[in-house]
Write a structure and sequence with these properties.
This protein is of the alpha/beta class. The protein has eleven helices and seven strands. Strand 6, helix 10 (about 230-245) and strand 7 form a beta-alpha-beta unit. The protein is globular, with a radius of gyration of 18 Å. The mean pLDDT is about 95.
């Protein structure tokens, strides 16, 4: 069993430490895995050190938040050099820009009547802000606000952080942060040849969007994902074959407190042999 999209506490919305993830993976029978934290690669060192001791095959991964045609897209980079000055500069500069824009999100939340300040944000500057970041901060002084009750005990409490992200940060509150994201095509071109570039959980994305991305250096599509139904998987598999793109597979596991419906290794299929061969080549 192979899972190439797992988050640790090095993402601001990850529940388990890298060590805990490795233990969970081993107990579930996963043989190969990749950490793919949001804009952060700190967990890679631990994965490389401890995975072999647990008879696990480990690959360095990274999930990059980008923008394309006014929409947010997530790009997975695998097999990179963790010591790359270019990669580290890219992450530092873009995380800094995103956190600076997060201040504008706080202003919007204040205009909505929420009591929240910059000092309320936990782990400011760690990874990038997520639904976990903002909901935790709001609950410090706004727990009785009726707008937050659905995420505490109501209909959206089954996945509070994900639902909050979808309801607030994917709309006006998160608009400023989306503006600061690096462009998708330029990011693909920048890291072309430095690893394997895969578009994460794209859903039923149009082929005319994928084609120019391939021209920039996109290597594959995460066809097997916990977010995709069978029809979407088949659609993406057919597109991958027609465009000669590799097929990846990842659960996007964050932990049951963050996304309770997603489990390690649950994504409906396995990555293609070609991507595994290339991963092993890049990760030597």
């Amino acid at each position: 069993m192979i899972d190439l999209h797992i988050h640790t506490t090095c993402s601001s919305d990850g529940q388990y430490s890298p060590q805990e993830i490795l233990g969970l993976a081993s107990s579930k029978g996963i043989t190969s895995l990749a950490f793919a934290d949001h804009m952060d690669i700190d967990a890679v060192k631990t994965g490389r050190k401890l995975a072999p001791e647990m008879s696990l095959e480990f690959f360095p991964g990274l999930e990059i938040s980008t923008k394309y045609e006014n929409q947010e897209y997530h790009l997975l980079l695998y097999g990179f050099d963790p010591q790359s000055p270019d990669l580290r500069h890219f992450l530092h500069s873009n995380c800094t820009a995103i956190w600076e824009k997060a201040s504008q999100a706080l202003i919007i939340l204040k205009t909505m009547g929420f009591d929240i300040n910059r000092d309320d944000i936990e782990n400011w500057g760690k990874s990038i802000p997520t639904g976990v970041t903002f909901l935790h901060s709001l609950l410090k002084r706004n727990a009785s606000d009726t707008r937050l009750q659905p995420y505490i005990t109501g209909a959206k409490a089954d996945a509070p952080y994900y639902n909050f992200y979808r309801d607030f940060l994917q709309k006006d509150v998160g608009a400023a942060m989306r503006e600061s994201l690096p462009p998708l095509k330029e990011t693909i071109a920048r890291f072309n040849g430095q690893g394997i570039l895969v578009l994460a959980h794209p859903g039923p994305i149009r082929k005319d969007i994928i084609c120019p991305l391939k021209e920039c250096g996109l290597n594959g599509i995460e066809a097997y994902s916990s977010y995709h139904d069978q029809a979407t998987i088949v659609y993406l598999l057919e597109m991958s074959q027609s465009l000669d793109l590799m097929v990846s597979a990842g659960s996007d596991f964050h932990g049951e407190k963050i996304k309770p419906k997603i489990s390690l290794g649950t994504m409906g299929g396995q990555p293609c042999k070609t991507i595994m061969k290339n991963l092993r080549s890049f990760s030597r």
